[in-house]
Design brief:
Layout (H helix, E strand, L loop, with lengths): L5 H10 L5 H18 L5 H34 L5 H28 L8
Length: 118
């Protein structure tokens, strides 16, 4: 019998993605928050495309920022996040981004600085 090396054991554990109930609840809740704060109003075709564009930009921002932070700090702090952790962090950042974008647009509307669409 071949003995399992430490690296092989870690790789086999890494391949198994186990979402716990807490992980699923967090991902679902943060996705709902991100989508909820991304909903835009206006005329029908424009509001749907603006909403979908905002949702896509939120999740791209979330995943991009997580991978940027991991790339910059992985060797320095010597850690290896799992796929579940990466997804949780990215979805949480997407929700934060959607909320901050909604606050920013609200401020622009409140101060009459929102640019007029042509």
């Amino acid at each position: 019998m071949k003995e399992e090396t430490e690296k092989e054991r870690l790789n086999s554990q890494e391949d198994k993605v186990n979402f716990t109930g807490k992980d699923k609840k967090t991902i679902i809740a943060m996705s709902i928050v991100a989508v909820g704060f991304s909903i835009r109003g206006g005329a029908f075709p424009g509001c749907v495309s603006a909403t979908l564009l905002q949702i896509a930009s939120c999740f791209i921002y979330g995943f991009g920022l997580v991978f940027l932070f991991i790339g910059m700090t992985k060797k320095t702090f010597n850690y290896n996040p799992s796929k579940v952790q990466i997804i949780r962090w990215a979805v949480t950042l997407a929700a934060i981004f959607a909320f901050s974008e909604m606050l920013h647009e609200g401020y622009l509307i409140l101060t009459d600085q929102l640019p007029v669409k042509k």
